[in-house]
Amino acid sequence: YRVHHKLLKRLPRYRVRMGFGLHSGWAIEGAIGSEFKVDASYLGPNVNLTTRLQICSHTYGCRIIASAAVARLMSDAVREECRLIDHVRMDGTRRPTKIYSLDLDELAFDDVGNLETINGNEESSNLLSCMGSKRKPLNMKQRLMLQRQWNRRWSDDCEMHSMFEQDAAIQIMRQRYLPEFFCRFNMAFLNYEAGEWDVAKMMLKVTRDMLHEPDGP
Predict the structure, then answer these.
(1) Residue 87: in which H helix or E strand, if any?
(2) Cys staple from 196: which of 13, 152, 181, 191, with CB 3.0 to 4.6 Å?
């Protein structure tokens, strides 16, 4: 959609922005439907919670939201890259859960200079070229490249946190989130969780305007 000339002519700078909710837990898999149509589906409270987290991504203005169950599965280094944004009880659950956000600014790629940086990084450039293949099947080289990357990231000796240090695309999407921002927000959240509403409100007003666009949480 970013390169659709007719769409951009009517809606300048049109962007598709999606939210993702991540949760981990048990579920029941089964075939649901009738004799005319049958679909494989998953049922259970954890499935419902995942759906609510996805909805929360729009409420909080975050692209990727994860529950505490997912955060517990992360390494300490990756968990530190996430931001604790709330501690609430979702509908249909008995206990409150902590909600984390993985902050990434996909609009950073509107900057031509950032795209040139990506093109200079071989792995990120190849991956983006595969993802950007419009309605064209991937060739053998692209399929092998994606398969090697998939195998490498699923291997036991892979350290996912290295992507925050080596992947050019992630570094560009994280560059506006400075340590000062996280420090101030964490202090505001501690006051919010402690019930110091006035102090938390004042501090969150500051962090809201520290980024190029208003911070959702």
Answers:
(1) strand 83-88
(2) 191
User: pLDDT tens, 21-60?
Assistant: 999 999 998 888 887 888 888 889 999 999 999 999 999 9
Q: pTM score > 0.85 for this model? A: no
Strand partners, 101: 65, 83
Distance CA 197, CA 180 (A): 21
Computed over its alpha carbons, how large is the radius of gyration of the chain? 20
pLDDT by residue (tens digit) across 80-133? Answer: 999 999 999 888 788 899 999 999 988 887 765 655 565 555 555 555 555 454
Nearest one of 125, 131, 70 to 102, comparing CA atoms:
70
Question: Which two three-digit tokens encode residue 210?
Answer: 């520290």
For residue 172, with 0-12 CB atoms within 10 Å meaning exposed, 13-18 middle and 19 or more buried, which class applies?
buried
